[in-house]
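A quick aside before the break. I want you to see a complete sequence-to-structure record at least once, exactly as it would be stored in a machine-readable document. Don't worry about memorizing anything.
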Amino acid sequence: MTNEDRTAAMLMRRSIEQARRLGVEARTIKPAQVVVAEWVRLKCRYGCSGYGSDLLCPPHTPTPRETRRVLDEYRCGLLLRLEVAAGADVWEESRRLTDVALSLERSLFLSGAYKALAFTAGGFCRQCESCERGIGCRYPDRARPPMTACGIDVFSTAANSGWSTKVVADRDASCHLFALILVD
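That is the input. The structure line, written in tokens, reads:
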């Protein structure tokens, strides 16, 4: 194992511990284990009332092909999982997971992993009432695209990391939210 590999492993262990302290589970994942598919983005286009409504949703986000190319530029990643209790406010929990992902991304960056890049749980930016087209994002330091908006199949990716997922049919049931941080 090279010094570079040992440093990367130490950063990942430290990030997993930091995530745990913040109430989020984290696992390492290889970029090759992250599943990207065209159909995921079609689900945004033909299944989400928010399609095109903000700068963090398609068509403003990277295509699945672009996402795969970016993933291939990284050596490892952290998959984050947050359990949302039955009846909890999913919007607020998604914002909390985004905050954790951004905190970990920043810590990794400041530790020398300058390529660290987070993808969020999905569609829950809510920093503003609405995006102001033509002006750009008013919070670019917090803006990260949702995994699904970039074509990442969250169910298959979670399974590849050893976590099982299920479709939740009841809005008041417990569920899991996922975020991803790429690290080189």
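Two observations worth writing down. The first strand starts at residue 25 and ends at 29. The beta strands are 25-29, 76-84, 117-119, 175-183. We'll return to this after the break.
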